[in-house]
Amino acid sequence: MGRLAWPLRPLPDGRGEVWRWELADLSELPAARAGLRSRLGTVGFPVPDEDTAGERLVLAFDELASNALRHGESPVVATVVAGSGGWLLDVSDRAPESMPSPAVDRDPAQGGLGLHLVARLSVAHGWYVDEGCKHVWACLPTTVENRTPALT
Length: 152
What we know:
InterPro entries: Anti-sigma-factor_SerPK, HATPase_C_sf, HATPase_dom. By secondary structure, the chain is α+β, with helices and mostly antiparallel strands.
């Protein structure tokens, strides 16, 4: 696997319904994932058997939130903006000095490939620092057909 840089970029302008979770511990992630799946259902998104785009969002949400909880500082705030053109996922933590670092030349059995995965699932991704918080974000499409992964 080649070198992947997680680009320093501002958050795109996202408009839509905003869903937010404040997380303090990894043990809260299962409930947050269930809450995200439930919200997807309330906006009429197909069940995962019919379309995997919703599960791709849940997976990206889980990867970015778990990274922030493991490597950042609490509180972690995970935000999803459900817009007409896709989802904007933004996860912030209180460790602005530690930039996202995708694993390089690591055995996949050792883990640490979440940023690579999110980059492949997204159409754009990046990170920035604002008011003492590091924000790591990704834009994901609401459909998986004709999706072009983000350039890395």
